[in-house]
Amino acid sequence: MSEASGAVVVGTGFGCLTHVRALRAAGIPVLGLVGRDPARTRARAERFEIPVGTVSLAEALALPGVGIVSVATPPHTHADIVLESVAAGMHIVCEKPFAAEASDARRMLAAAEGAGIVHLLGTEFRFATGQAWATRLVRSGAIGEPRLATFLLLMPLLADPSGQVPDWWARAEDGGGWLGAHASHVVDQVRATFGEIAGVSAGLSVTSSRDMTAEDTYTVHFRTVSGVEGIMQSSAGTLGPPLIATRMSGSEGTVWTEGDDVWLADREGSRKLDPPADLVVGPADPPPGDLMVTAYDFMHSTGIDMGPYTRLFSVLRSAIAGADLPSDPSPATFADGVADMEVMDAIRRSAAERRWIAL
Fold it and tell me: Which end of the chain, N or C, is less packed with Cβ atoms under 10 Å?
């Protein structure tokens, strides 16, 4: 297991827009960038002042001082990259969705546990102030016994058919689509807030006029082992203004979020609750505007993931130094990646077979 402190980022898109910047903000030097296209990789490495840009993962892993690999590539590529990095003794942060399917996720978890490395999943919004504060309130009993949850997001990101997305993103066989891009965060939030999911009933569809085998819309009814009933619904293909709602209700009250603001309604009335200092992360930090070209790029244009990702990489750095992983908020590990992928696989199976799937 490597004790070196420098990082290699695999992926020249979101990897540069967020991972490189957040690693540096967490005090971790970025020593190498790995991509598929030699010219693009060299240009992005130069743009972000990364010493080495290469299309060879092996070359990057052999760089002096490298002990961390941050994976920001399409989900169907994660297993090969992670397994090679684990074999080299690297600590790893891997983007979500963790894999194209749960079987690959299990292989990565087994390899990481066998190597004794620090392994974290890129569900960075566990550290976002609003989500972390809402989760803490629910888990501390602020709404009594949790019973109902709603996660709704409608937006026009992909409604314009001329907006570009990477080829893999439109293909179901490559793990593309809005389920992986967005629902993977929601599934992880449900599990972190209420515990494991017991079963799902789902539909996947294309609302926009795009020609794609993956979905841009999902609707999921879920039930947790603890008895919470909930709905996750989202579309990136709906025209009109965005519609966002996150509400969690229980026997004694309701918690909901408006951005990073958290509200509580109970017998004393409705009020906004200021977050505790330990849950406040840095402000949004947008990436360079000239790099926002495709619809896929614009998914990351606000920079709202920078603060949470910086906190995630700070946790990684502390864990490598020997600190225990924090419990509130707790970072997602590869074990969570497996559990999330089992839910995602169940959602896809439910949509295909048009029935309730128990986990």
Answer: N
